[in-house]
Amino acid sequence: MHQKRISAPKTYKIPRKAGKWVVKPSPGPHNKEAIPLALIVRDLLHYADNLREARRIIAAGELMVDGVVRRDYKFPVGLFDVVSIPKLEKHYRVVFDEKGRYVLKEIRDYDRKVYKIVNKTIVKGGKVQLNLFDGTNILATNDYKTKDSVLLSIPEKRILDHLKFEEGALIMIVGGTHAGEIGKVKEYKVVKGSGANLVTVETAVGEITTIEDYIFVIGKKDSDKPVIDLGV
Q: Where is the KOW domain (predicted)?
């Protein structure tokens, strides 16, 4: 299935008028902002000149996403995913450019990924399950809260670190006009009624206030260094 190129998500860094249609991602990780693996290969990494060539490369098992070989050219890829090409010993992380579009940056720490906790549920046996931003679910203790992040090993998904959502935490804004900006949490404001709660962030360009859904913790309190390599 395809979608109209002109109406593709704004996170896609593709020519909008180069044709009418563009590949639509399969159901799977992430949300409607996911980009299909074929576009990663052709349009972002430029390892293929056309869709047919990209499909051949992917079908041959030459690419891994988060440490797992993916052969579906429509496989959905999203923010902070690690795309690896073992044959070339190359590893990339999906991040934002200055316009909030997906780009791939070459990295060294391809064995880990940071995940935002979006929900917690109790499963069979009374165990706590963390529901993560890309659809991943893991079992953990009850020490974790929604809006916190966890650093996991990939592909094993073993917890390596706990990043709390708190004042002073290092975060990335992942939605809206300021997507990609990095800063520290200055204030969290609970909004009464149906409105979204607000977070004020101190960034290099000044203070930015955005909704809590757009906040993604990527580093410890009072630290200037993200726990993952962003390739910058």
A: 164-191
Q: Do both 198 and 151 map to the same domain?
A: no
Model confidence at 9: pLDDT above 90: no
Looking at the domain assignment, is residue 229 inside a domain? no
The answer to whether 198 touches 212, Cβ cutoff 8 Å, is yes
- pLDDT tens-digit profile of 50-108? 999 999 999 999 999 999 999 999 999 999 999 999 999 999 999 999 889 999 999 99
Cα atoms in the 13 Å half-sphere on the side-chain side of 18 = 8
Q: Across residues 182-206, what is the average pLDDT?
A: 93
> Is the predicted pLDDT of residue 1 greater than 60, yes or no?
no
- Residues 28, 56, single domain; the answer is yes
Residue 225 within any structural domain of the chain: no
Q: Is 178 helix (H, G, I), strand (E, B) or coil?
A: helix
Closest CA to 40 of 20, 27, 25: 25
SS3 content of the chain, % helix, strand, coil (to 5): 15, 40, 45
Decide: helix, strand or coil at residue 20.
coil
pLDDT of residue 11: 74
Number of domains the chain contains? 3
Return the CATH number at 80: 3.10.290.10
Using DSSP's 3-state secondary structure scheme, residue 163 falls into: strand
Q: Whole-model pTM?
A: 0.92
Parent domain of 158: 112-163
Residue 159 burial (CB count, 10 A):
16
Tokens representing residue 171 in the block? 């975060």
- Backbone torsions φ then ψ of 35, nearest 5 degrees: -115, 135
Instruction: Give a yes or no: residue 226 inside a domain.
Output: no
